[in-house]
Amino acid sequence: MKQFTRFEGVVAPFDRANVDTDLIIPKQFLKSIKRTGFGVNLFDELRYLDEGYPGQDCSKRPLNPDFVLNQPRYQNAEVLLARRNFGCGSSREHAPWALEDFGFRAVIAPSFADIFYNNAFKNGLLLIELDEDTVDRLFKAVEATEGYALDVDLENQQVITPEGERIAFTVDAFRKQCLLEGLDDIGITLKDEDAIREFEADHRARRPWLFRDSA
Fold this sequence. Notes:
single chain; alpha/beta; 8 helices; 7 strands; 13% strand
């Protein structure tokens, strides 16, 4: 998992509440578990005018010109601005994979579904909960200003607007540290690799008969 550093990114507004994981990445794309390659199918049903299927050449598919991520002003956006209960529905981990693979590094919304929230942090995607009034203000600012970008400072837990307003957000200390260090569940375990090897060596020395067949 990549380390999460402070960055400034263009914001794309997705003005819809209760966005479920099937809308984020439809079920037909869940066969792969490689974590990569899902970005082209992010919001597939809204993004394209035809029906998508795995292995398709998406560069030749007809785009929906009315969908926000297809609009030129939001190309290369790294922050997704959404409404309440983002990521509801099934527990598929492919949803944060698709968002991250597309290029999003953070999602801002008033609330997130619990399982999606956990999956996102485990895959290096920062979720920022802000109150609905603040989110409303950000939607208006994004729509009024082309190229509107936010400075996301995880270390100090602040979102900084182009006008210099500093909007504080809360994040669990453990999740924050994992993002800053770029540690997923495997990376966390490997931090104790020396202790694990020492324990295994001691266990082999004390009970050698248990390991004869595996030698």
